[in-house]
Design goal:
Elements (H helix, E strand, L loop, with lengths): L24 H9 L39 E2 L13 E7 L13 E3 L4 E3 L2 E5 L4 E5 L6 E6 L12 E3 L3 E4 L11 E6 L4 E6 L14 E3 L19 E3 L2 E4 L15 E6 L5 E6 L3 H6 L10 E3 L4 E6 L20 E6 L5 E6 L15 E7 L2 E9 L5 E5 L9 E5 L15 E5 L16 H6 L3 H8 L16 E3 L13 E3 L4 E7 L3 E7 H7 L8 E3 L6 E7 L14 E7 L4 E7 L4 E2 L2 E2 L13 E3 L3 E4 L6 E6 L5 E6 L9 E5 L2 E8 L12 E6 L4
Parallel strand pairs: 1-36, 3-8
Antiparallel strand pairs: 2-42, 4-5, 5-6, 6-7, 9-10, 10-11, 11-12, 13-14, 14-15, 15-16, 17-18, 18-19, 19-20, 21-22, 22-23, 24-25, 26-29, 27-28, 28-32, 29-31, 30-31, 32-33, 34-35, 36-37, 37-38, 38-39, 40-41, 41-42
Length: 671
């Protein structure tokens, strides 16, 4: 048996509310008054540059990460580090598909990277509509409504990460659906639409709709939500799915399905857990995008952790494919190699980003490499053909439990990369932020004294306030992943510095303690397990982070050596319309794109700004204000001789309660 698993419209309503990581309004006002912070909309304006040359042909951005190798790289050079300061907004589009959660419709989280293919910009919305736009003007070509119920079935919010595109290698003249756009829904349906007309492809599955939930046959407590668009490799659609974190001991075990792009027929299934563990546990799914090397015939899966996330007494047998990068034969689904990055994961450190494939030169040797970014703030670098180390990866001793959690057996070691160095220091508690401690009357210092932390892999406990979780469950690196410039062999990654703390409660105590949960925080039952859990962000009573800034950084690495070329705070924390000093940085969700013009584009930050940085130096070059945090990777494309940069500004309640429905596109001025 093959083993493979874990998984024009109206202006929108908007809301700015207190962020988990924001600072108090009086402090914001003080910073603005003293010139330490900016008012919304302020940005630099580098010197004007000459009129750029036209590009000779249209350049695509056909997948979630731009390319199957997940490099998020554009070869376009019309926009450069010298002229990017002249970027202007050329069009914007509002979908109308947005909710702040204050009414009957759950809040929306919109993380859809725009797809440019077939001379069209395609987007999917959190109301599960698919829209085709003219890439030069933003004029709507067509729209399709999947008529999906606006119910948060597996997530605390309505969520969409966009669409996928496929084109026949040898199209049949006059036949429909030789080019197809695919989008999934939270209720586990996959829609296939003709890319030119927006009509359903009658030959795909059941008249253009595939019910993926028909394969949900073990612990079917939720639908196999298709929030991430399929990964398209040749004529294969690779489908992972998302579930309901922290809710159950026994849950649907993760599966990845290979589907025929034309017919919707299932080709093979991958499962990461053994049959025995599937019965006791669940998940270990793939909920984010995948990457592939078509020349090698391999697809690379970022596999998440088993259930329940913070207690593993029910899964004491080894599960080597869980919390791993696993390479599969694209035609058969058979495992070619796999590397597990967390042994017996009880920290919810699931692998949350597609690995980035890059050719690098190390000590004079050309290596086809794979870089796996992780929630732990590690970048593991291996040969993508075999999974063997490029730089040594060592299993090192890690802290044991304190004896308070019954039935648990912890791994005595965990993998640590030697190069690149960790993106943040997980060996000790981060320093208490004196400003937050003073404002909180010593509250942060007292909390630090109560939290157990003997390094990143300190196990959860039932004692006191619990165990410090650093990096947090959202991740030192989020699902935006690593971007790569192949000319300079520079990798670029944004990292968040967030402190949480987790506590386990025996079942009876949990029922008394549970006071609700939010997005990536609060109480969760782990129903069926002997322990429920609580996860909180470490803040004082006023909502100020208890740990020292920066709260997020942008980092560039030389992949010849694994050394850091530069690092700088990215974005700004924000509340009530005021920006904090950019020296403090911001937590980020979403990732960067890089170009041959020497520019990094990124949104991702709390302040809802869009930014460009110099790839060579990290110098900020341009910014503009969006209506909500742009928590999707940007897309870079060329159309009719002009280079464009497209952002989706949709927001994510993990950052703050500010949502939007804006697609906004920039280009250099034309005469």
């Amino acid at each position: 048996m093959i083993s493979v698993i874990r998984h024009s419209p109206p202006t929108p309503a908007r809301r700015l509310a207190r962020s988990r990581l924001a600072l108090c309004a009086p402090l914001c006002a003080l910073l603005v008054a003293t010139g330490c912070a900016q008012q919304p909309g302020e940005s630099g304006d580098p010197d004007h540059s000459p009129e750029p040359a036209a590009v000779s042909e249209n350049a695509t951005w056909e997948s979630f990460h731009g390319q199957l190798n997940a490099q998020k790289y554009s070869p376009l050079t019309q926009i450069t580090a010298d002229n990017v300061g002249d970027l202007e907004k050329v069009w914007e589009f509002h979908t109308g598909d947005v909710s702040d959660g204050s009414g009957d419709i759950p809040a929306t989280v919109w993380s859809a990277t725009p797809i440019f293919a077939n001379d069209t910009l395609y987007i999917g919305t959190p109301f599960y509509r698919l829209i085709a736009l003219d890439p030069g003007t933003g004029e709507q070509k067509w729209a399709f409504d999947t008529q999906t119920r606006k119910k948060a079935l597996t997530q605390p919010v309505l969520k969409n990460r966009g669409v996928s595109y496929w084109a026949a290698e040898n199209p049949v003249p006059g036949e429909a659906c030789q080019k197809i756009v695919y989008m999934g829904t939270m209720d586990a349906r996959l829609f296939a639409l003709d890319a030119d007309t927006g009509k359903k492809c009658e030959g795909f599955a059941n008249h253009g709709v595939l019910d993926v939930n028909q394969w949900n046959d073990t612990h079917a407590k939720w639908p196999l939500s298709l929030l991430q668009p399929p990964t398209v490799v040749g004529d294969h659609l690779l489908l992972g799915w998302a579930g309901k974190d922290w809710a159950f001991e026994q849950a649907p075990p993760g599966t990845v399905f290979s589907i025929d792009a034309r017919s919707g027929e299932r080709e093979w299934t991958f499962q990461a857990l053994s049959d025995g563990m599937r019965e006791k546990s669940g998940t270990a799914n793939v909920w984010t995008h995948m990457s592939a090397d078509e020349d090698l015939g391999l697809v690379y899966l970022p596999v998440s952790s088993p259930s329940p996330n913070f207690w593993g007494g029910n899964r004491q047998e080894k599960a080597p494919l869980a919390t791993s990068t696993t390479a599969l034969d694209i035609d058969t689904g058979e495992v070619v190699w796999s590397r597990q990055w967390v042994h017996h994961d009880v920290w919810d450190y699931d692998i949350n980003a597609a690995p980035t494939l890059m050719d690098i030169t190390v000590d004079g040797e050309d290596i086809p490499a794979l870089v796996q970014a992780t929630k732990m703030g590690f970048l593991f670098v291996v040969d993508r053909r075999t999974g063997e180390d490029v730089w040594p990866i060592e299993d090192r001793p890690v802290p044991a439990g304190d004896g308070s959690v019954e039935g648990e057996i912890y791994s005595p070691t965990q993998p640590f990369p030697t190069r690149p160095a960790p993106l943040l220091d997980q060996t000790k508690k981060p320093p208490v932020w004196k400003l937050a401690d003073i404002v909180g009357g010593g509250q942060c210092s007292r909390l630090w004294d109560q939290l157990d932390y003997r390094g990143m892999y300190t196990p959860p406990t039932t004692k006191g306030e619990g165990t410090m979780a650093y990096p947090d469950s959202s991740g030192g690196v989020q699902w935006g992943g690593v971007a790569y410039d192949p000319a300079s062999q520079t990798a670029v990654v944004n990292t968040s510095h967030i402190v949480q703390y987790v506590k386990l409660y025996e079942r009876g105590a949990y029922e008394k303690a549970d006071t609700g949960s939010g997005n990536e925080s609060g109480f969760s039952p782990q129903t069926g397990a002997p322990y429920g859990m609580r996860l909180k962000v470490a803040m004082n009573w006023l909502g100020m982070p208890c740990w020292e800034p920066p709260f997020g950084e942008l980092v560039a690495l030389d992949m010849h050596t694994g050394d850091v070329k530069w690092r700088r705070p990215v974005g700004a924390s924000q509340q009530y319309g005021f920006f904090m000093p950019e020296a403090w940085g911001s937590p980020t969700i979403g990732g960067p794109a890089v170009t041959a013009g020497g520019v990094i584009f990124i949104g991702a930050s709390m302040d809802a700004k869009l930014r460009a940085y110099s790839l060579a130096t990290g110098e900020p070059l341009w910014s503009d204000q969006a209506e909500a945090p742009a928590v999707a990777n940007p897309a870079v494309y060329a159309y009719k001789g002009r280079q464009y940069v497209a952002f989706v500004a949709g927001g994510n309640t993990i950052l703050k309660d500010q949502v939007g429905d804006q697609v906004v596109v920039y280009a250099l001025p034309q005469e």
